[in-house]
Design a protein that fits this description.
Layout lengths: L18 E3 L2 E5 L2 H12 L4 H15 L9 E8 L2 E7 L9 H6 L18 H12 L4 H14 L1 E2 L2 H17 L6 H7 L11 E2 L2 H13 L2 H5 L1 H13 L5 H5 L4 E3 L2 E5 L2 E5 L6 H11 L10 H21 L10 H4 L2 H8 L19 E8 L4 E7 L8 E3 L4 E3 L29 E5 L2 E9 L4 H13 L5 H6 L3 E5 L2 E5 L4 H9 L3 E5 L7 E7 L5 E5 L6 E4 L1
Parallel strand pairs: 17-18
Antiparallel strand pairs: 1-20, 2-10, 2-21, 3-4, 3-11, 4-7, 5-6, 8-9, 9-14, 10-11, 12-13, 14-15, 15-19, 16-17, 19-20
Helix pairs in contact: 1-2, 2-4, 2-5, 5-8, 12-13, 12-15, 12-16, 13-18
């Protein structure tokens, strides 16, 4: 089932155009990684194999957003069914809110051992390959190993992000526990420049170990021992026992029907449900025009209400006191919709009892499609790097609360509120396509705007990604891209929104889309806000 595009109406695609192909397609934020996935398809691999190869390659060529110590989520379309994989990890068994507060923290930090949870990304690669891959696992990691050994030229966006992290870590990471980050990622005493060759020999050795052991070494072998030892000697809570007990979790994707299309997300602990709640709220309005202050106002207000509910209720599903069904009910959406008026409001969570990330998508000729996201969370993550491995550990635990009355309060063996969300579209039980917009708390907002661009405003995939974006920050604060229409900006101010126009567009997400047409032709698009490409066959 395909979407209808009105390409004469919008002219945002001045730099890139939609890319079409038939045999296979890979879209992601870094050209070398996209090409690595396409090469796997050409070797006889399927979309799942291509996703694994691309994800592994991204840990090398885009370390500013993901790494071997990341988490991952995936939506997989195979044989007419959509499958969900939650490869986020739990907090260490030994950690407690009392221990953290005794160290003087009132909120979870972003750096150091405290926000480190069990990394799930490499476990996701092994699980996906074992269940649905075609090629040998070792083959899938070869492109990443080659780039790590031989080096590659750093792309401009990644160079900017690398420099940004270097500046932050230079100021805030003075303890010896952070020395390995500077040794591995800034050996010249600076971040690499755009176009400069970069290689990662320790990363290559670790990838070879993962290839040979199908990632079991990370959780039960030599690599697990190295993580355990560094944690013990530097004040961490993560242990070999935490790693040994880790298994990626297969989950039932959640969805709503939006104007005839089913929009799919991974269920909590991920916050994809926020995008679905916002779409549920706005679906009751008669939205006709995109370039209209009233449309943007309603979008923003709907997202604010959905986000407040998400921040209040989303947690590890075992700890949630409300259900996804309650949060996604049409009755609750109607109740929240009635709170939207002509002026901006300060949002508060409601009562539903009334009834630094990389994204990629792949498709193959057989009809398989993958929507996949992998993340450190903030930049390089916790800035903890395991010596001689290149393993940079993420800081996902930073999203835990230290408020013991909240469902998302940190506790032993618990998954945190998670921001990474792959998306998928179906209609009448058939795949329409995979989509995603990376970028922390921008992600549900990017999903909502992209879906409405595709469905409500009939943009083609590239136009849907190119179009100027807004981002709700807090209260009445809204950030706009500098390309946002000035006249509409002025009208939003009159409606009570506190507007900030951002000079850089990196904060507004970096997404990709692959749609499948009725005849099997693939239509792909990638962000102008990243260095990405559509690799196609």
């Amino acid at each position: 089932m395909e979407l209808k595009f009105d390409s004469q109406k919008y002219m945002y695609s001045s730099i890139r155009k939609v890319v079409y192909g038939k045999k296979g397609m890979v879209c992601t934020s870094q050209p070398l990684a996209a090409q690595a996935g396409l090469d796997i398809l050409k070797k006889g691999g399927n979309a799942i194999d291509a996703a694994i190869a691309t994800a592994a390659c991204l840990t090398v060529v885009e370390p500013t957003s993901n790494g071997l110590g990341s988490d991952a989520f995936a939506l997989i379309w195979k044989k007419g069914k959509l499958l969900g994989l939650n490869a986020s990890g739990m907090s260490p068994k030994q950690i407690t809110v009392e221990k953290i507060k005794k160290q003087g923290y009132q909120k979870m930090p972003l750096l150091g051992w405290l926000p480190v949870t069990v990394p799930g990304a490499v476990g996701a690669w092994a699980e996906l390959s074992e269940k649905y891959g075609k090629l040998p696992f070792e083959t899938l990691l070869q492109p990443a190993i080659s780039y790590a050994k031989e080096g590659f030229p750093v792309t401009p966006t990644i160079a900017r992000l690398w420099e940004k992290s270097f500046q932050v870590y230079s100021k805030e990471c003075k303890e010896t526990v952070f020395d390995e980050w500077f040794r591995i990622f800034a050996p010249k005493g600076r971040a690499p420049f755009a176009g400069e060759l970069w290689n990662a020999p320790y990363h290559a050795k670790t990838l070879e170990e993962l290839a040979q052991t199908k990632c079991s070494s990370f959780y039960k072998g030599v690599l697990a021992d190295k993580i355990d030892n560094f944690s013990k000697t530097t004040g961490g809570y993560l242990t070999k026992e935490d790693l040994k007990n880790y298994v990626p979790e297969w989950v039932e994707p959640i969805s709503i029907n939006y104007k005839g299309y089913d929009i799919w997300e991974i269920p909590p602990n991920g916050h994809g449900i926020v995008a679905l709640m916002a779409l549920n709220i706005i679906s009751g309005f008669d939205i006709k025009y995109r370039e209209c202050a009233d449309t943007y106002h309603k979008q923003i207000e709907a997202m604010k209400l959905a986000f407040e509910d998400g921040k209040r209720y989303i947690s590890d599903k075992r700890f949630m006191k409300v259900t996804t069904e309650q949060l996604l009910s049409t009755q609750y959406a109607e109740k929240r919709r009635q709170e939207i008026g002509e002026k901006a409001i300060i949002p508060k969570y409601g009562n539903p009892y009334c009834g630094g990330t990389v994204y990629l998508c792949t498709a193959d000729e057989e009809g398989n499609m993958v929507s996949y996201i992998q993340s450190n969370y903030e930049g390089f993550g916790s800035a903890i790097v395991i010596p001689d491995t290149g393993i940079a550990l993420h800081d996902r635990g930073a999203n835990f609360s230290l408020d013991e009355t909240m469902e998302n309060c940190i506790a032993p063996c618990k998954k945190p509120y998670h921001t990474i969300i792959p998306g998928f579209l179906t209609k009448n039980g058939e795949a329409v396509g995979a989509f995603g917009v990376m970028g922390g708390f921008m992600q549900p907002q990017g999903h909502m705007q992209t879906i409405m661009n595709l469905i409500d405003f009939h943009m083609n995939p590239q136009e849907a990604l190119d179009a100027p974006r807004w981002q709700w920050l807090d209260g009445k604060k809204i950030a706009l891209e500098r390309t946002f229409p000035y006249a509409i900006t002025e009208e939003l101010v009159r409606k009570g929104h506190d507007i900030l126009v951002e000079a850089e567009n990196i904060e507004f997400g970096r997404g990709q889309i692959i749609l499948r047409q009725k005849d099997g032709v693939l239509a792909g698009a990638t962000e102008p806000r990243a260095d990405g490409t559509v690799a196609v066959w």
